[in-house]
Write a structure and sequence with these properties.
mainly alpha
Length: about 525
C-alpha cells in the first residue's frame, strides 16, 4: 500500500509542476493598486478599483486552471498506481509486496541476456591442450639440463644432442604411426581384427580443416599434447644409458619406442583398450609414460652394461660425480614446472567451472607431492649418510611428481603429501640398491620413473572411496604387470638386436676420451680440454 501511495504522490508532483508552469505563463502581471486614503478605508462603502477587478478575473482564471490540473493529476495518479501495481506482484492482499512469482516472471518481458557462444568450451579446451602441451614440451629442456649436469663434462654435449634428437624423432613418429596406433579404432582394430582392444590402426594421422573441426577441442591441439607425452617417455631412457652408449643405436631405439611401444601400451588404457575396459586407471601416466620409459631404460642398462670403472672388485662402487650441480638443479625446476602441464592438462577440459577448479586442484596436489618428496629425501639422507645429498633431493622431487601422476585429482593435500613422500623414500632405498645389483643408472631414472611409477599406480585406489566402479588394487596390479612385461621384454629384444647388428657400446678409448669428442665432435666445455673426467 505504501508503494501505491508513493507512486501516486510522485505522479501528482510531476503533474502539478507542469500545471503551475502553465499557469505562471497565463497569468498577467497585476496593475499596481491605487493609493487608498485613510478616510476611504474608514468608510463603510467600498469602492472597487480597476486593479481589484483585474485581480478577481485573474484569480478566476487560475482557479479554472487549477481545477483542470487537479483532474489531470487525478488521471495521472490513477495510471501510476496501476503501473506500480502491475510491476510489483503482491500476495493478493493489501500489504507489502513479495518476491516475484513464476507467473509474474513469465508475464514480464524477459531481459535479453547475452547468449553464451557454443565455441567457448571448444576454445578453452583447446587452450588447455596448447598451454599444457608447451609446458610438457619444456620438460625436454629440463631432461637435457638435468642429464647434462649429472654426467661428466666430457659427455654433456652428447646428452644435449640426444634430448634434442629424441624430441624431433617423437614429433615425426607420433604423426606417421604413433597417434593412430594409440587412439584410432582401438576398440575395433579394423585393420587387424584379431588384435581388437590391443592396438589401433597403422596409419598416418590426418587432421580436419580448421572450419570443419567440430569436436570438443582442436584435433591439432590434441595431437600436440599427446605427442609431447610420447617424447617424455623417450627422455627417461636417455639418462640411464648415458656416457657409454653410442648415438645412432640410441636414436634407432627411439624410433621403436615412440612409434610402436609407447603407442601400443598407451592404447590399452587411454585408447579405451582392454585395460580401460577392465577399470584400470592411470590419470596422467605413472605407468603408461614413466614406467614404460623406466622398463625400457632398465633393459638398455642391462644390455649395454655399466660405465668403465663404475664397479670394482668385491662390490666396490666408485662414485662418478656430475659436471654441474647448478645445471642439474635448473633441470629439476624446469621439470617441476612442466609437470603442471603434464598432470593439469590431463584433465582434458577447461570449458566449465568444475573443470577449471579440478585443474587448479591438480596443480596444488602435484606441487605438494613434489615438495614432500624433497623433504623426505633431505631428512633420510641426513640420517643415513650424515650429510644431505643434493642429487637425492632432486630425484626426491621427481619421484614425488611421478608418484602423484597416476591420480592427482582425487587425493586430498594430505594424501598427496603422503604419496609424494613415499616416492622420496623409494629414491633413497633404490638408488643404492641398484648400485649393489651392479646396474649403472647414471641419473637415477629407474628408481624415479619405474619404481615410483609403479608405486603411484598401485596406490590409486587409496584416493577413492571404494564405491562400485572405482579402481581396484587387483586391476591396477594387472595393468602394472602387463604393461611392464610388454615394455621390458620388447625393449630387451630390440636392444639385443641392435647390439648384435650395429653394436651399442662405445669403445674403451671413445668412452675414456668422452662421447662429446668421439660422437658429437663439439665439446660442451672446450676450455677444460677433451681429457677432463
Amino acid at each position: 500500500m505504501l508503494l501505491k501511495i508513493a507512486g501516486a504522490g510522485l505522479a501528482l508532483a510531476l503533474s502539478a509542476t507542469t500545471v503551475w508552469a502553465k499557469a505562471d505563463t497565463t497569468m498577467q502581471p497585476l496593475a499596481e493598486p491605487a493609493p487608498i486614503l485613510l478616510a476611504q478605508a474608514d468608510s463603510t462603502t467600498t469602492t472597487t478599483t480597476p486593479a481589484e477587478t483585474t485581480t478577481e478575473s485573474t484569480t478566476e482564471s487560475v482557479g479554472e486552471a487549477v481545477g483542470q490540473a487537479a483532474e489531470t493529476v487525478a488521471d495521472e495518479a490513477e495510471k501510476a498506481v496501476d503501473a506500480v501495481a502491475q510491476a510489483i506482484p503482491t500476495d493478493g492482499e493489501e500489504g507489502s509486496p513479495k518476491e516475484p512469482t513464476a507467473a509474474s516472471q513469465d508475464a514480464a518481458p524477459a531481459a535479453a541476456a547475452p547468449a553464451e557462444s557454443s565455441d567457448v568450451p571448444y576454445i578453452f579446451n583447446t587452450l588447455l591442450f596448447l598451454m599444457a602441451g608447451f609446458l610438457v614440451m619444456f620438460m625436454a629442456a629440463g631432461f637435457a639440463m638435468l642429464e647434462a649436469g649429472l654426467v661428466r663434462s666430457k659427455n654433456a654435449a652428447m646428452q644435449c644432442l640426444k634430448n634434442l634428437a629424441l624430441y624431433a624423432i617423437a614429433g615425426i613418429m607420433f604423426w606417421l604411426i604413433g597417434y593412430n596406433l594409440m587412439y584410432e579404432g582401438v576398440d575395433t582394430a579394423n585393420n587387424i581384427q584379431a588384435l581388437a582392444n590391443y592396438m589401433g590402426t597403422f596409419s598416418v594421422k590426418t587432421f580436419p580443416a580448421p572450419d570443419a573441426d567440430t569436436g570438443d577441442y582442436s584435433a591439432y591441439s590434441d595431437w600436440f599434447f599427446q605427442m609431447v607425452f610420447c617424447a617424455t617417455t623417450c627422455s627417461i631412457v636417455s639418462g640411464t644409458v648415458a656416457e657409454r652408449m653410442r648415438l645412432w643405436p640410441f636414436l634407432i631405439f627411439c624410433v621403436f619406442l615412440t612409434g610402436i611401444l609407447y603407442p601400443i601400451t598407451g592404447s590399452w588404457e587411454w585408447g579405451t583398450g582392454w585395460l580401460d575396459q577392465m577399470g584400470f586407471s592411470d590419470f596422467a601416466g605413472s605407468t603408461l609414460v614413466h614406467s614404460v620409459g623406466g622398463w625400457a631404460a632398465l633393459a638398455g642398462a642391462l644390455v649395454v652394461g655399466a660405465r668403465a670403472g663404475k664397479f670394482g672388485a668385491n662390490g666396490v662402487i666408485h662414485p662418478m660425480p656430475g659436471s654441474s650441480i647448478p645445471l642439474a638443479t635448473l633441470g629439476t625446476f624446469i621439470l617441476w614446472l612442466g609437470w603442471f602441464g603434464f598432470n593439469g592438462g590431463s584433465q582434458l577440459a577447461l570449458g566449465t567451472q568444475v573443470d577449471a577448479s579440478s585443474v587448479a586442484k591438480i596443480f596444488v596436489n602435484t606441487n605438494t607431492a613434489a615438495a614432500a618428496g624433497v623433504i623426505v629425501t633431505i631428512f633420510l639422507t641426513q640420517i643415513f649418510y650424515r650429510k644431505v645429498d643434493v642429487t637425492m633431493a632432486m630425484n626426491g622431487a621427481l619421484a614425488g611428481l611421478v608418484s602423484i601422476t597416476a591420480e592427482p585429482l582425487a587425493p586430498s593435500m594430505a594424501s598427496a603429501a603422503l604419496i609424494g613422500g613415499i616416492g622420496g623414500l623409494i629414491v633413497v632405498i633404490f638408488v643404492p640398491l641398484l648400485d649393489k645389483m651392479r646396474i649403472d643408472d647414471v641419473v637415477g631414472a629407474i628408481p624415479v620413473h619405474l619404481v615410483a611409477g609403479i608405486w603411484g599406480t598401485m596406490i590409486v585406489p587409496f584416493s577413492y572411496a571404494g564405491a562400485e566402479g572405482d579402481p581396484t588394487y587387483y586391476v591396477q596390479f594387472i595393468g602394472v604387470v602387463s604393461i611392464g612385461a610388454l615394455a621390458f621384454f620388447s625393449s630387451l629384444i630390440v636392444w639385443l638386436v641392435l647390439a648384435a647388428v650395429i653394436g651399442l657400446r662405445a669403445t674403451p678409448e671413445e668412452e675414456a676420451v668422452g662421447l662429446d669428442s668421439s660422437e658429437v665432435g663439439v665439446l660442451a666445455y672446450p676450455e677444460f680440454g677433451s681429457g677432463r673426467a
